[in-house]
Amino acid sequence: MTKAELGDYRRILLALGRRLRGDVSCLTGVAFAASGGKAAPASSDPSEWGADAYEQEVTASLLHNKGQSLKDIAAALARIEDGTYGRCEECDQAIPKSRLEALPHARHCVRCAGNLERLARSARR
User: Fold this and answer.
1) pLDDT single digits (tens) 53-89
2) What is the maximal distance between C-alpha atoms in the chain?
3) Dihedral (C-alpha) 4, 17, 70, 27: value to the nearest 10 degrees?
4) Residue 94 pairs with which residues in a beta bridge?
5) What pLDDT sits at residue 44?
6) How far is Cα of residue 34 from the mean position of the Cα atoms in its chain?
7) Which residues pair with 87 in a beta bridge?
């Protein structure tokens, strides 16, 4: 991969990280506003507590996923710095540019990612 291509991916990753941090900030603000800044249900009506709990669970899940994506982006930026960006961490083959364009923080080629996902699914059973 050329220095120019690495620079392009670095800019893409940095922009994606900024956007995700904004999303996290917004979601955190919404979560605190919805609960009145408290862990207790926002409504005093018990019939609405289930909806409040569901909204909080969805928000917590979104925050977790975005947080994981931010960690993945930071790891990809580190791989750019250490010269391993664009190589599969399992088989050490080049990750196709089409995959990096779709998922710039990809750590694995499609084949290895599929194998790892199958292993994870079978471990959950």
Assistant:
1) 787 788 888 888 899 999 999 999 999 999 999 999 9
2) 60
3) -170
4) 87
5) 65
6) 24
7) 94
Nearest to 104 by CA among 113, 116, 112, 95: 95
Contact assessment for residue 84 and residue 73, using Cβ atoms and an 8 Å cutoff: no
Amino acid identity for residue 12 in this structure: I
The pair of structure tokens assigned to 29 is 């603000």
60: left (phi over 0), alpha (psi -120 to 50) or beta: alpha
Quick one: which of 82, 94, 79, 69 has its CA closest to 16? 69
Placement of tokens 């941090």 in the chain: 21
What is residue 94's DSSP assignment?
A: B
Q: Give the C-alpha separation, 43 to 56, whole Å.
A: 13
